[in-house]
Amino acid sequence: HIENKFMTKLSFYPSVINRIKKMFEQLNWPIEDLENSEFNLYCNVFSHLMQQEQEMLLEITENYLRFDFSRYLPSLKRVLTNLNFDRFNNSRQIYVLPLLPKGDFLKGTKSGFWMARLFEYNEIKRLGVFNDKRIVVLHKPEQTEDDNTGLPRNFNRRPEACLLLVDDFGGSGETAEGALNYIVDELKIDPEKIIIISLIIQAEGYQRIIERHGVPIAYYEIRNKGISDNFESPKREQFLTLMDDIETMLSVRPENRLGYNQSEALVSLIKTPNNTFPVYWKKTKLSSGAKFTGPFSRL
Predict the structure, then answer these.
(1) What is the pLDDT of residues 134-167, one digit of tens each?
(2) pTM of this prediction?
(3) What is the pLDDT of residue 123?
(4) CB of 158 within 8 A of CB of 169?
(5) Residues linked to residue 218 through DSSP beta bridges, in sequence order
(6) Within its chain, how far is the Cα of 66 from the centroid?
(7) Parts of the chain with a pLDDT under 50
(8) Sequence-ordered list of residues with C-beta below 8 angstroms from that of 91, at least 6 positions apart, any chain
(9) How many angstroms separate the CA atoms of 223 and 221, rounded?
(10) Which helix (H) or strand (E) holds 94?
(11) How many helices (H) and strands (E) does the chain have?
């Protein structure tokens, strides 16, 4: 039996697999006997962890949210049905734009573009909240001499206009803040005419935007930090130390420790955000030469 920093005793491994299987069943996650299935990848992760690290990962995974694309449309419908801000209720023209910093509008694969396109679906257009409103979906905010498909240049002078900045996930609030800095500071759009919509958002990012910018945010679910907000001392400190050990083994870059900007997220959507603990999505080769692949890819 081998036991070191990267591997537990093989005799312990079958009982761990049974616990993982039970957890997957409780979370209604599929259990597939395929080499690269999420179940097998999750089990493989445990072969590189010591027992305390395994116990910690099992416990925090109980609060993991897997939010696949089939949930986007019904969840967005629920968010919009409950939307109740004067700046929206009093508007007749609703402009929809991906929640992105300036440089990201050239990256068409960003999830904000997926979210904006949902507003072109009839299921959204026919919602009661849009009965007397016209929806205009944009894929960039600025108009140019050759292209007038951005926000109207007189947007602020249109009392009937409101801007929805949309995304599927908000982590530390950095992306949303970058978007607002671009839309409000550079393009001079009145923040009183803006609403942010994010299906899933971390509480930390929510507070950052509300406190610094005062722009309202509508969401489907708000999430706490996976360790710091969910456990009391001394377990909290113990789990953070164990996660630090795992991330050292995985050679995680400083900015991604505990998830990007230390977000401690436990969520996967169309893809897994880097705000989620890297043990769930990291792909690397360990110092032992073994390959490590997290179960919830970012690809």
Answers:
(1) 999 998 998 876 666 789 989 999 999 999 999 9
(2) 0.91
(3) 96
(4) no
(5) 197
(6) 10
(7) 1-12
(8) 133, 160, 161, 162
(9) 7
(10) strand 93-98
(11) 10, 9
